[in-house]
């Protein structure tokens, strides 16, 4: 069983970018932690980050046939990208949408997501723990 964690635009800056909003953990810290939880749960965790919308679309398309769940924080692409939405629905891999911050407590342009109505669930505002919560949820679904 494989779960793919996709991080979009600017999430490579995690740990140094607006730490009062996104926390002190780097993306590498988060990935290592998820690998550890995955190992405990007997699930392979794959990781992808890009600042390029098309690269994320390519990654989602390549996941077809080898990935059981996707966990995605598309960053600002969340609020702009019909293309990422279409890729996710196109491959028909179930996914959980994660946002580190509570997007609903921020600017109104962050309140709309092109992904949420297609997601199995959406996690916002739990900090980087949101990725772990999503991973544990996916593992539970896979065990059903
Ligand atoms: C984010 C929220 C987005 O609005 C923002 O553009 C990001 C990060 C989050 O994880 O809280 O880059 O997805």
3D architecture notes:
GO terms for molecular function: 3-dehydroquinate dehydratase activity. Substrate binds at residues 73, 79, 86, 100-101, 110. The active site is at 22 (proton acceptor), 99 (proton donor). The protein has 144 residues and is α/β, with parallel strands linked by helices. The protein has a single domain (2-143), classed as Rossmann fold (3-Layer(aba) Sandwich), CATH 3.40.50. It has helices at 19-22, 27-41, 53-62, 82-91, 129-143; strands spanning 2-9, 44-49, 69-75, 95-99, 121-124. Strands 2-1-3-4-5 form a five-stranded parallel beta sheet, with helices on both faces. Helix 4 (82-91) links the parallel strand 3 (69-75) and strand 4. Helix 2 (27-41) packs parallel to helix 5 (129-143) and helix 3 (53-62) runs parallel beside helix 4. It is globular. The structure holds 1,3,4-trihydroxy-5-OXO-cyclohexanecarboxylic acid (DQA). The site of 1,3,4-trihydroxy-5-OXO-cyclohexanecarboxylic acid (DQA) has 10 residues, from strand 3.
Number of helical elements? 5
How many domains, in number, for the residues?
A: 1
How many strands in all? Answer: 5
Distance between the termini: 13 Å
**Overall mean pLDDT:** 98
The amount of helix comes to 25-40%
CATH architecture: 3-Layer(aba) Sandwich
Instruction: List unreliable stretches of 5+ residues.
Output: none
Bound small-molecule species: 1,3,4-trihydroxy-5-OXO-cyclohexanecarboxylic acid
CATH class equals Alpha Beta
Which of globular, elongated, flat, extended, rod-shaped describes the shape? globular
């Amino acid at each position: 069983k494989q779960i793919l964690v996709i991080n979009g635009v600017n999430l490579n800056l995690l740990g140094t970018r607006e730490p009062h909003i996104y926390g002190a953990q780097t993306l590498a810290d988060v990935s290592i932690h998820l690998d550890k939880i995955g190992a405990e749960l007997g699930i392979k965790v794959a990781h992808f980050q890009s600042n390029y919308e098309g690269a994320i679309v390519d990654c989602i398309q390549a996941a077809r046939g080898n990935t059981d769940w996707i966990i995605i924080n598309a960053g600002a692409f969340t609020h702009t990208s019909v293309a990422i939405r279409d890729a996710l629905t196109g491959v028909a891999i179930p996914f959980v949408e994660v946002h580190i911050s509570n997007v609903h407590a921020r600017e109104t342009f962050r309140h709309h997501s092109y992904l949420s109505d297609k997601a199995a669930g959406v996690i916002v505002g739990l900090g980087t723990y949101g990725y772990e919560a999503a991973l544990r949820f996916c593992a539970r679904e896979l065990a059903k």
